[in-house]
Each structure stands twice: as C-alpha cells, then as structure tokens.
Amino acid sequence: MSAAVAVQAPGPDWELDYYSRPILEVDGKKRWEVLICSTAGLQPAPAPFRWSMACPAASVNSQWLRGAIEAALAAAAEQGYGPPRRLRCWRGSMRAMVQRAAEGLGLELVPSRRCYGLVEWLRERQASVYPLEPGYMAGPLAPPPQPIPPVALPLPEAARGDSWSWATLSAATLAEAGGWEIAFPGLVALPSDIDPATPVPGIRLFSRRRALAIAGWLSGLEPTRLEVSAGQLVLEAGLEDRWILARLPEEEARLAQQAFAEARERAGGLQFIAIQASEEASTLEGFWLLRDLPEG
C-alpha cells in the first residue's frame, strides 16, 4: 500500500513584477529582474514570501519567465508556503508575456494595480539594494510618458445602487476590519507607520435588493482608487478601467474634488468602498481598502 502524498493547501495570492532595473550589466544592457511576493492581508504574516531572480536582457521572454515562476513555486514549497491560486500583474506593458508564462502552471492571472506589497518591496530595493550594485545608474531618469486616462464608463444597470454617501473611518477602526462580517472582502495591510487616529475617506453604496450582486461585480473589477473628476465620482479598477459611480452638481464636485484628494493624501493614499443593503444594515456585502500607487 503506497503512502499518501500530502497536498499543500493554497496560500495567499502572489504579486509579480518582471521589468528592467536601473543597473547596467557589463554588456551595456539594462538588468531585468522578476520579483514575486505574497499578498499581505489586513494582518500580514510575520514573514511574507519574497523571491527574486535576475534575468539576462537577451533572455527576456515568456519561456524564461515561466521557468522563473516554476522556480519560485519550488522555493515557496521548500519554505512551507502553499502555492497561490492567483497571480497579480501590475504592469500593463508586461501583461501578455506574464499571461503566456502563467499558462499551464495552474495559475489565474489577474491584471491589477492591487499589488501593494510588491510596490513597497520594489521601493525598498530602489532605495537600499540597487544603489549598491555595480553599474547602478544614479541620478534622475527621464520619466515615462504619462498615459491618457481612458474615458470613464457608466456602471451597468445591474451594478448601480439606490444611493450613496461620503464616509470616514479611522485607521484604528479599519485595523479591526478583519473581524467584520463581509461577503466580498478586499482587505489589505495598512501602512505600518500610520497613526491610528488618522481619518480615512471613503464612500458607502446602498442597494436594498442588489447589494450582494453589486459587491460580487465590483469584486471582479479589482478596485484601486476613487477620484472626483469632471463632475463625476469615478472608480479606477484593474489596470486602466474607469467607472462612473455618480454624477455631482458642479459646485459639489468642485468642493468634493479638493476635500477628498486632501483627505486621501493625509491618510497616506488610503481610501475605501463599502457596500450595504441600507445605512442601518449591520453587515457589509462588500468592503475594499484602496491605496494610491504609482503608474506601472
């Protein structure tokens, strides 16, 4: 009788960045690198999985990346981490290559800017790792061209709520969100240096009959950011999607645009969306923490 083989339970989602770095190799070409880390929840694990591998510029392709992901899966298993169900990619320019690499590995690719742990790790490396490498290109680099934001589209009829309102929650309250009853949660780790008393701006969407369906629909969008623009309350999602949540009177839009932007900046880029059946409801059908991130 053969021994049973233990199957490791899936772990958190992974976030991946496959891109060039500000380092020139001896052949005069920029270094490429793949970074992979596990997505941290509201209460992050003491040691999230992190893995990196340098890639020769001449080997930048989906086949090399697939091998790198396989190596990361093996390294994760050796360290006791379960494999991810989903792989988030935050650079639109690399989406097709990452998609091809993920095919056949049993990983669902999610194009998304909700890669908060990855971006923080990349910032750490840009500050304390890359400058120490031979060939580091010090000094300001030419900024990438800023893409023109796509036109915001109206929400489908089935995804529209009955009403909405502005809302504010303290960082201390949000830190407890892991214990809330949420049908579709989108919780992420709060910045470690945030003051618990910091007010975080957000909105509440209400629908007595369709709250759960709306929450499910928004969950598939990968919500990333709220803004008031051109007299509209807009939700940015995925890599570049923009959806109109509400239209505002001119004066209200002018005041709200400045007030919300300032509140979001004071909160370190944090914001949130809550979906409930009514203002009196004790449960949340959906709740997402959002954070401003640089363009990919």
Automatic annotation (TrEMBL):
InterPro entries: Tab2-like, Tab2-like_C, Tab2-like_N. Coiled coil: none annotated. Residues 14-125 form the RNA-binding protein Tab2-like N-terminal domain. Pfam families: Tab2-like_C, Tab2-like_N. Residues 149-291 form the RNA-binding protein Tab2/Atab2 C-terminal domain. This is Tab2/Atab2 family RNA-binding protein. It comes from Cyanobium gracile UHCC 0139.
